[in-house]
Specification:
By secondary structure, the chain is mainly alpha-helical. The chain is built from 12 helices and 2 strands, in the order ααααββαααααααα. 69% of the residues lie in helices and 2% in strands. It has a two-stranded antiparallel sheet. α2 (56-71) runs parallel beside α8, α4 (113-133) packs across α5 and α6 (179-197) runs parallel beside α8 (230-247). The longest helix is centred in the first third of the chain and has 29 residues, at 2-30. It is globular.
């Protein structure tokens, strides 16, 4: 039965996204919710100016509707489901506010960095306190071993760092047509398999709902993109995958399965440190996908290469968790 539910979940999420997008994209265009392109970005991206953004709303609707519908087919949605939806919606709402301020209020940077960080921390703390209320173990599993490190009260800091860090990491990766849609679908697919292996079916259903929604969105987001997910989508996806890693007790494994997001973030950190210390840049532009663009790679080549790397990370992560 669960196999059929998993299959129906990914199909339903895909269809909801594919059917909603042609209705929603013209609506965004009518409202003039078009993407603004920063002048310091690659010059080739200027042609994307005006492409409808905030498509993450479609992704969120698909995930929420599909998850609640399909978990109701075999049981009442449990705590894991509601927590994942809370984090996803919370970070999605924060991203929506950021996108709305950029577009409707014509403030190109959206929320200030302090406002965004505060919102991310508050959502992460709510997540932590709910887990604590239900006796969730304040421990982090160590990959390759059966060991866990009990962080005690410091687990709250860890969760805040993890959710905030990965929501921003996915957000940084969202810079090319289809890049995050593909890499995130692969990462969530990996966690769906691992959650299934742990018999955490609510998490598996949620994860495949995200995969289906992203594959449906990719129909319109692949190069040349007809719509962008915006911070509404990328912040929500980053928070959601971090929450899944926590609930499945595979927090540190996310560093491998979400390796593309980690590498993209490290490229920004390395670039900033190098420039501040030496006045020189390591990469032609960060995040890393822009470096390859400016090195002469086509946008599609960069995206497909990153998808392939994400797939290798996902396969390696599954292998380590299931067989090692």
């Amino acid at each position: 039965m669960m196999e059929r539910i998993i299959l129906f979940t990914i199909v339903m999420a895909f269809l909801v996204t594919v059917l909603l997008s042609p209705l929603f994209i013209p609506f965004l265009r009518k409202l003039k919710f078009g993407q603004s392109i920063r002048d310091e970005g690659p010059k080739s991206h200027q042609k994307k100016k005006g492409t409808p953004t905030m498509g993450g709303i479609i992704i969120l609707l698909s995930i929420i509707v599909t998850t609640l519908t399909m978990t109701g087919k075999y049981s009442q949605p449990g705590l894991d489901t509601y927590l994942l939806l809370l984090v996803t919606f919370g970070y999605g709402l924060l991203g929506f506010l950021d996108d709305f301020i950029k577009i409707a209020l014509k403030r190109n940077l959206g929320l200030t960095s302090k406002q965004k960080l505060l919102g991310q921390i508050v959502i992460a703390l709510i997540f932590y306190f709910v887990l604590k209320q239900f006796g969730f173990a304040a421990a982090v599993a160590i990959p390759f071993t059966n060991m866990e490190v009990d962080l005690g009260p410091f687990y709250a800091l860890f969760l805040v760092f993890w959710l905030v860090g990965f929501s921003n990491a996915v957000n940084l990766t969202d810079g090319l047509d289809g890049l995050v849609s593909g890499t995130a679908a692969i990462a969530f697919g990996a966690f769906a398999i691992l959650a299934w292996n742990q018999s955490q079916f609510d998490i598996a259903v949620f994860s495949v709902a995200v995969v289906g929604a992203l594959l449906g969105f990719l129909v319109f987001n692949a190069h040349p993109a007809k719509v962008f997910m915006g911070d509404t989508g990328s912040l929500a996806l980053g928070g959601a995958i971090a929450a899944i890693a926590v609930l499945t007790k595979m927090e540190l494994m996310l560093l491998l399965i979400g390796g593309v997001f980690v590498i993209e973030t490290l490229s920004v950190i390395i670039q900033v440190i190098s420039f501040k210390l030496t006045g020189k840049r390591i990469f032609k532009m960060s995040p890393l996908h822009h470096h390859y663009e400016l090195s002469g790679w086509s946008e599609w080549r960069v995206v497909v290469t990153f998808w392939a790397v994400a797939l290798l990370f996902a396969i390696l992560g599954i292998y380590i968790e299931v067989w090692v």
